[in-house]
């Protein structure tokens, strides 16, 4: 093979590392888990849907395990940490990905709705981080990473997702504050903020998909409000997620990387 030719298989740059990915039974989480597994990590697929978590883990290979986990529930998250401790005794990579969607503007907002969304999307990530930190501290020094999946809605406003946007904004600054607190220990903390990605979360209330909606195809694609003129796929997010979890990101912490086809670069 000529020296310039790219290898056809992943280089397994995460061999020997343990990764926990929440919400990994489908969508973006599954794509990230698959990429980390392809790079050699032993992956824990944690999801509230236990059956799909097990099925995803089985598809990723013998080094992956599934764990039914509700990130909004203290006992469930403690059980996840106990499983990881018993199986691996440590964890190098935590990806806080699990979240629920929201379709509620301020006019319809109730405090109960706000608390339900933030209890999962905001408190859930912090709860899992607290539970996993002792195991991350036992991980291989050079490879310890926490990656929080935020959203373009954590850095920009949008109609009709007030609780979601509030939670994602909190995740962005949780990332920065935690990065400062853990820097002396060499644990790197970053956020990845996707734009419009083709997953079940992007389904509209009527069951159709936002990528197929006339407003999306007109404004974002035809008129180039997304400069790359397409919505993203879960695999478009898995690549930058892998980078932020890899040794190549060793001088990157407290950052928010937007993977949005250029959406946030325009006005
Ligand atoms: N799809 C997008 O356009 C988009 C855009 C920006 C950010 N994001 C973010 O990306 C992440 C993944 O989203 P997605 O689009 O893949 O969504 P998705 O709905 O396809 O997947 C979310 C996963 O999280 C799981 N989950 C939900 N509640 C949970 C809980 N309490 N505990 C554990 N698991 C739970 C679900 O079972 C599901 O497998 C989320 O943080 C989301 O906010 C998505």
Ligand catalogue: nicotinamide-adenine-dinucleotide
Q: How big is the Rg?
A: 18 Å
Task: Please give the share of residues in helix.
Answer: 25-40%
Remind me, CATH topology?
Answer: Rossmann fold
**What is the 3D shape?**
globular
List low-pLDDT spans: none
Sheet-strand content, in percent, reads 5-15%
End-to-end separation: 45 Å
Give a description of the structure.
With 267 residues, this protein is α/β, with parallel strands linked by helices. It has a single domain, classed as Rossmann fold (3-Layer(aba) Sandwich). Helix content is 39%, strand content 13%. It is built from 8 helices and 7 strands, in the order E-H-E-H-E-H-E-H-H-E-H-E-H-H-E. The chain has helices at 27-38, 50-60, 74-87, 111-121, 123-137, 162-182, 214-222, 234-245, and strands spanning 18-22, 42-47, 65-68, 93-96, 145-149, 188-194, 256-259. Strands 3-2-1-4-5-6-7 form a 7-stranded parallel beta sheet, with helices on both faces. Helix 1 (27-38) links the parallel strand 1 and strand 2. Helix 1 (27-38) packs across helix 8 (234-245), helix 3 (74-87) packs parallel to helix 5 and helix 4 runs parallel beside helix 6. The termini are far apart. The mean pLDDT is 95. Residues 22-23, 25-29, 47-49, 69-72, 97-100, 120, 124, 149, 151, 194, 196-197, 199-202 line the site of nicotinamide-adenine-dinucleotide.
């Amino acid at each position: 093979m000529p020296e310039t030719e790219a290898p056809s298989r992943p280089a397994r740059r995460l061999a020997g590392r343990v990764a926990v990915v929440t919400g990994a039974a489908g969508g973006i989480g599954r794509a990230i888990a698959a990429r980390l597994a392809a790079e050699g990590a032993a992956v824990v697929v944690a999801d509230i849907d236990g059956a799909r978590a097990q099925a995803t883990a089985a598809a990723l290979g013998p080094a992956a395990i599934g764990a039914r986990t509700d990130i909004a529930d203290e006992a469930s998250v403690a059980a996840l940490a106990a499983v990881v401790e018993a199986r691996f005794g440590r964890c190098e990579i935590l990806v806080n990905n699990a979240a629920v969607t929201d379709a509620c503007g301020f006019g319809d907002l109730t405090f109960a709705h706000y608390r339900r969304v933030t209890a999962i999307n905001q408190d859930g990530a912090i709860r899992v981080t607290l539970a996993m930190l002792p195991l991350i501290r036992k991980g291989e020094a050079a490879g310890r990473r926490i990656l929080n999946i935020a959203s373009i809605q954590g850095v920009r406003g949008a109609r009709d997702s007030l609780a979601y946007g509030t939670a994602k904004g909190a995740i962005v600054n949780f990332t920065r504050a935690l990065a400062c607190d853990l820097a002396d220990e060499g644990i790197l903390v970053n956020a990845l903020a996707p734009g419009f990605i083709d997953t079940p979360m992007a389904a509209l209330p009527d069951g159709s998909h936002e990528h197929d909606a006339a407003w999306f195809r007109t404004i974002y694609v035809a008129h180039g409000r997304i400069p790359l003129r397409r919505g993203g796929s879960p695999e478009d997010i898995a690549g930058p997620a892998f980078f932020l979890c890899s040794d190549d990101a060793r001088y990157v912490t407290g950052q928010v990387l937007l993977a949005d086809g250029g959406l946030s670069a325009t006005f």
